[in-house]
Design goal:
Elements: H1 8-22, E1 115-119, E2 122-126, E3 209-210, E4 229-230, H2 239-253, E5 318-320, E6 338-340, E7 342-345, E8 351-356, E9 358-359, E10 374-379, E11 394-399
Parallel strand pairs: 3-4, 5-6, 6-10, 9-10, 10-11
Antiparallel strand pairs: 1-2, 7-8
Length: about 400
């Protein structure tokens, strides 16, 4: 649709708003709330300081538009073209930008914190959603994006300098060459984020989740990494595996919509370091992982069936519903590991009330060290436990352990 097809009353409001901005007689500030403007062409429009809170603007085009200082609380811009648009100091709390194109957009000082939206008579907290959006080259400097969802978004070369990104979700996002200097990323989820060439100098990454992230190509000089879960930048995995884990993280973050599930079945992975990685659901069946490490790794529903795990280190990892059936685990270490069941979720995303034990059936456990391990839903039936160390282990709901 072109602008001429706007409803007459809306077109009049926008015309009066331009007059208001120019200080002309008869000008009135735009005060539209909960307007329905889906699929409209509003390129180059000047709506700075306008109020459009709660409006739906899906599949619309605001290319080169000026929406600075506008009240866009709870607006829905999903799948819209927002290239080079200006949102500086705009109120974007709870706004939805899913699948939107924000290439080159300017959001300096914008407020993208969660908003409290009324739905069916109840107040619901809703985070700003930029998942799967194109944010390449966008400028978010000094914005507040606390708890925003940027999962699997593309933000190559974007500027997030001094942005509040506390508890933000960046899982599977592409931040290649992004400027994150001085950012507050405390408690942020960056699982599988591509930070190649990104500058995080002076950033606060306290307690951030950096699983499946290769930090060897990012600048983390003077960054605060206290409590962050991250890989040893001096021990990167082979490039093809790094890329595979990134795609796997996208697959998880998007519920299978994009990316690809990682499979390393029968692969030669001797002495590789997967410590602090997120390998939930990865297939390592039959792989040779002798001397490898999975320290502090996430192993939810990961399968090692029939794999060679001799001398492999799983210390402090979480093995929920993990399949070790028939694996060679002699002299492996599970010091302070959580070996537990995994709750089964149905296709509709709801709990089924059923769970799957972590399985060791038929595995070779000679010399294995379970010191301090928590067993809470594990099946060690049909295994030889002679010589296995259970010092200080906590055992409940475990089959095959007397």
């Amino acid at each position: 649709m072109d602008r001429s097809e706007l409803p007459a009353d809306v077109s009049a409001v926008f015309k009066a708003h331009v007059a208001f901005l120019r200080g002309e007689p008869g000008g009135r500030r735009c005060l539209l709330k909960s307007a329905k403007l889906d699929g409209r062409n509003l390129d180059d429009i000047n709506l700075q300081q306008a109020t459009l809170s709660g409006s739906t603007l899906t599949r619309s085009s605001f290319e080169d538009a000026d929406l600075s200082q506008a009240d866009l609380f709870g607006c829905d811009f999903s799948a819209s073209n927002l290239k080079n648009a200006c949102f500086e100091k705009a109120d974007l709390r709870g706004a939805n930008f899913t699948l939107a194109n924000l290439t080159g957009a300017r959001l300096r000082g914008a407020d993208l914190r969660p908003g409290h939206i009324m739905q069916w008579g109840e107040e619901v907290k809703r985070s700003a959603d930029l998942s799967d959006a194109n944010l390449d080259g966008a400028d978010f400097s000094f914005a507040n994006m606390e708890e925003a969802n940027l999962a699997v978004s593309s933000a190559k070369g974007a500027v997030f300098r001094d942005v509040v990104l506390h508890a933000v979700n960046l899982a599977g996002a592409d931040l290649t060459g992004a400027d994150l200097r001085g950012c507050n990323l405390k408690n942020a989820n960056l699982t599988g984020t591509n930070l190649d060439g990104a500058d995080l100098s002076g950033a606060n990454l306290t307690d951030a989740n950096l699983r499946n992230v290769d930090l060897s190509k990012a600048n983390i000089e003077t960054a605060n990494m206290m409590g962050a879960i991250h890989r040893d930048s001096q021990k990167p995995l082979p490039a093809e595996i790094e890329e595979m884990l990134r795609e796997h993280s996208k697959w998880i973050a998007s519920n299978g919509a994009i990316g690809a599930r990682a499979t390393l079945k029968d692969a030669e992975l001797v002495e590789l370091d997967f410590s602090s990685c997120d390998v939930r659901g990865v297939c390592f069946d039959g792989a040779n992982l002798k001397g490898a490490a999975f320290v502090r790794s996430e192993l939810f529903l990961t399968s090692f069936q029939g794999a060679n795990l001799e001398e492999t280190d799983f210390s402090f990892a979480r093995a929920s519903g993990t399949n070790f059936a028939g694996a060679m685990l002699s002299n492996a270490s599970f010091v302070s590991t959580r070996v537990e069941d995994a709750e089964i979720i149905g296709p509709d995303g709801r709990k089924t009330g059923r769970s799957l034990f972590a399985r060791f059936r038929g595995a070779a456990l000679q010399g294995i060290n379970f010191a301090g391990t928590v067993f809470d839903g594990a099946d060690l039936s049909d295994t030889d436990l002679e010589g296995v160390k259970f010092d200080f282990a906590k055992i409940k709901r475990a089959r095959g352990i007397e």
